[in-house]
């Protein structure tokens, strides 16, 4: 089995993040608080802190790996950077200048900036101003036509990818003079002005959600609400794009395990594996925990019943049973939508062998792919 540990912390979890040494986890139990737990033994978790500063649901959390700072954003339109001082987490308010909810947040690879996506069609790039001892935000405006649902930093610390409910994925330059340094190896992106749009992808005809870069930054992956996942190589003036359709419920987030393998999570409540062959063609491989990819008519019928049940309720006992059996056959770790997936490895690592997922069922699951290499295929690693 790929699952190492599963623990139910709350009725529902909106987002989660791990401490640099992976000994503590911070999550929002679908309210205005952030709970921090530490593993006291193999199966026991102890709550150490409750961060209470936001007024509404915390929609995004990220824990920096080097500076040990936590950044949170909320539907209350605010962001806080939390620093551990004397055993207590001390918040510093970040003025985002938003008139709608903040929806997602992520530290940049060098941790000198973080990006916030919002319902105000705006992305905030926040950085620390040493002279005034506060966090400042610069806004990328008038580019998105709807809510920004996800942000992802390129390894070069300059490019930022975003997804939006207008169905588009965009890539921007976030170069800030005095904060970033020009790197000759980075090429033209470092010469771009702040907020300049490098690329706009119109592959999806529905809401677009999670987006991630591959470890090298050569490939971009994002997902749409139409049960499709999109892969883009050679991000720039002439990108190479692929789309992979699958017949199950839509995904919400993605994670690159390696340059050739991606894990997708979402409404189907079971992680999905996508991989590229030697020619660079991406395809759906299987669910984690499933012996082989579901392709038979009977299996598809069961999957359709499960999807129907989740959308319209368990109106028929036979439909509910079919959905339950189908979920169990594919792993059944989560009981509801998985809304986030987080790597359990050092930033910039070429391979991710462990990751965690959290969902609306209140569970956080830790997955280990070490013992699944033979099943998934060594060539993808």
UniProtKB/TrEMBL annotation:
Source superkingdom: Eukaryota
Keyword set includes Repeat: yes
Main localization, broad class: cytoplasm
BP GO annotations: Arp2/3 complex-mediated actin nucleation
Keyword Ubl conjugation among record annotations: no
PROSITE patterns for this protein: WD_REPEATS_2, WD_REPEATS_REGION
Anaphase-promoting complex subunit 4-like WD40 domain segment(s): 17-108
Classification via SMART domains: WD40
WD repeat ranges, renumbered to this chain: 51-92, 141-173
UniProt KW keywords: Actin-binding, Cytoplasm, Cytoskeleton, Repeat, WD repeat
Protein name: Actin-related protein 2/3 complex subunit
Organism: Raphanus sativus (Radish)
Species classification: Eukaryota, Viridiplantae, Streptophyta, Embryophyta, Tracheophyta
């Amino acid at each position: 089995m790929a699952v190492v540990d599963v623990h139910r912390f709350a009725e529902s979890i909106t987002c989660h993040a791990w401490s640099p040494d992976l000994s503590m986890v911070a999550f929002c139990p679908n309210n205005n608080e952030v709970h921090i737990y530490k593993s006291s033994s193999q199966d026991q978790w102890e709550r150490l802190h409750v961060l209470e500063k936001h007024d509404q649901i915390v929609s995004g959390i990220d824990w920096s790996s080097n500076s040990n700072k936590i950044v949170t954003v909320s539907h209350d339109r605010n962001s806080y950077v939390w620093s551990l001082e004397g055993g207590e987490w001390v918040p510093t308010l970040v003025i985002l200048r938003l008139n709608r909810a903040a929806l997602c947040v992520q530290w940049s690879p060098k941790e000198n900036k973080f990006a916030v996506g919002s319902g105000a069609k705006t992305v905030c790039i926040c950085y620390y101003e040493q002279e005034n001892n506060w966090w400042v935000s610069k806004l990328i405006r008038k580019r998105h036509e709807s809510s920004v649902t996800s942000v992802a930093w390129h390894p070069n610390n300059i490019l930022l990818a975003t997804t939006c409910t207008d169905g588009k994925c965009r890539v921007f330059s976030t170069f800030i003079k005095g904060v970033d340094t020009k790197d000759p190896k980075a090429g033209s992106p470092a010469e771009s002005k702040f907020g300049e749009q490098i690329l706009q992808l119109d592959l999806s005809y529905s809401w677009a959600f999670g987006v991630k870069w591959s470890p090298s930054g050569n490939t971009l992956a994002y997902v749409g609400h139409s049960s499709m996942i999109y892969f883009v190589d050679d991000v720039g003036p002439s990108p190479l794009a692929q789309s992979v359709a699958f017949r199950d419920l839509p995904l919400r987030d993605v994670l690159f395990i390696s340059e050739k393998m991606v894990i997708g999570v979402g409404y189907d409540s079971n992680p999905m594996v996508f991989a590229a062959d030697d020619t660079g063609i991406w395809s759906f491989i299987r669910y984690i925990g499933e012996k082989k990819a579901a392709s038979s008519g009977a299996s598809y019928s069961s999957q359709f019943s499960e999807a129907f049940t989740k959308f319209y309720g368990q109106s028929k006992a036979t439909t509910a049973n079919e959905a339950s059996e189908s979920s169990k056959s594919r792993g059944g770790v989560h009981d509801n939508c998985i809304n986030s997936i987080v790597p359990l490895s050092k930033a910039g690592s070429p391979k991710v062998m462990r990751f965690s997922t959290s969902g609306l069922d209140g569970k956080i699951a830790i997955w280990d792919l070490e013992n699944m290499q033979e099943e998934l295929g060594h060539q993808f690693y």
